[in-house]
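Writing this down once: the sequence line spells out the residues, with the fold written below as integer tokens. This is how one looks:
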Amino acid sequence: KKAIDLAREAIDHTQKNVLIAGCLPPLVASYRPDKAPDYEKCVDLYLQIVREQENFVDLFICETMASIKEAKAAVVAAKTSGKTVWCGLTLEDDENCELRSGEKLIDSVSELQSFGQEEFLLNCSFPEVIDKGIAILSQNCKFFGGYGNGFTSIEPLKTASNVSVLSARTDLGPQEYSNHALNWANQGATVVGGCCEIGPSHIKHLYDTLIDNKFEIVNSLS
């Protein structure tokens, strides 16, 4: 609630037409679908989060969903709000286009589409991996996008409790990151941005790159 209040204050201060997204994150640990509760418990917990946010946000983003179970539970709960729901999936750090659970991206999208989910994002994954995932989304989704992270590896998290043990890449500056995001936009991505270790300088460079390449920056759900 405090975060939403601060966001509203910032909007009032800047007089910008900005939408606020409520967030449904992993319930226990990012990148660790094996630690998530069973499906029914996930839905119940996500419903509690939705009820706390739904009257104060414009849409919901289910972020860093590492398994079909997590994603389905979050989306089902978020859709009870009647608001637009974006589903952000996180991919394993290899070239197989699989969720962190080992489930294929294409299978995950297909199952989520079977109960009405249409908007898909790839987030908190290597931008190189998102490059491959976006190619799949572009062939199977009308609304899609991506926002990658800048971690060197998530392996240390297997024996730690938070991301303080992770380190940032030194080969992914604003120009390098913008090249990836521009590639996604050129394939039809509607939403591009940045996740962990992608900072303001990256986003400023990305914004300028999109403008230079004649993309229109809009703040709309349509």
User: Anything to note?
Assistant: The CA atoms of residues 39 and 129 lie 27 Å apart. The mean pLDDT is 95. The domain at 2-212 is CATH 3.20.20.330 (TIM Barrel). DSSP finds seven helices and six strands in the chain.
